[in-house]
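ARCHIVE RECORD
Type: protein–small molecule complex
Small molecule: glutamine
Source of inputs: curated submission
Record status: active
Notes field left blank by submitter.
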Amino acid sequence: MSTGEPRIGVLALQGDVREHLAALRSSGARATTVRRATELSEVDGLVIPGGESTTISRLLETFGLLEPLRARIAGSMPAYGSCAGMILLAGKVLDGREDQHQLGGLDVIVRRNAFGRQVDSFEEDLAFTGVPGPPVHAVFIRAPWVESSSPEVDVLARVSDTPNVPGGEMAAGRIVAVRQGPVLATAFHPELTGDTRVHRLFVEMVEGKL
Ligand code: GLN
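STRUCTURE (tokenized, with ligand):
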């Protein structure tokens, strides 16, 4: 039965899959797990969760999903990556593993574990372009930042100039949320906070409203 709700997959090879499924469901999407190419072909959009980008990269190959997923992203399927997902969607990664694969979709260079060198985890309230209401409470866990981005990329959020990171001069003002056409990415984990506004933004992108 068609409900009119968009069908959004969560790449379910590793990482915090359940939290994304829950956030998508409370944002008006039909959410399903994606582990095979046939499942990928049935979704209108895909979330790539937080986790470990090198592990997800390896499993993409094992499950025969690497090329099908690259092809769907090249074909403008909406995609949203949080943390490890942002790393996978980036065109280029600094401090990654030699053999880690990139899916493309975002014309950015990300630095893996960028905040993690200073502290494993930190939290900060961020102004987020396109998300109405109060600032978004952002949870960073061994998070990347966007080192540089092309002019085609919209910067949606940055950490503050005095970030809540011990010894955080290097982290000041870093880009932590971006959008390029149908691809959205955050260095942090909105799926962990119970605030579904970022997922709602993605659902509306999949619906073609934004
Ligand atoms: N540091 C992890 C990586 O390289 C990402 C961490 C996360 O997703 N919380 O993939």
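CURATOR ANNOTATION: Helices lie at 17-25, 37-41, 53-62, 66-74, 84-89, 197-206.
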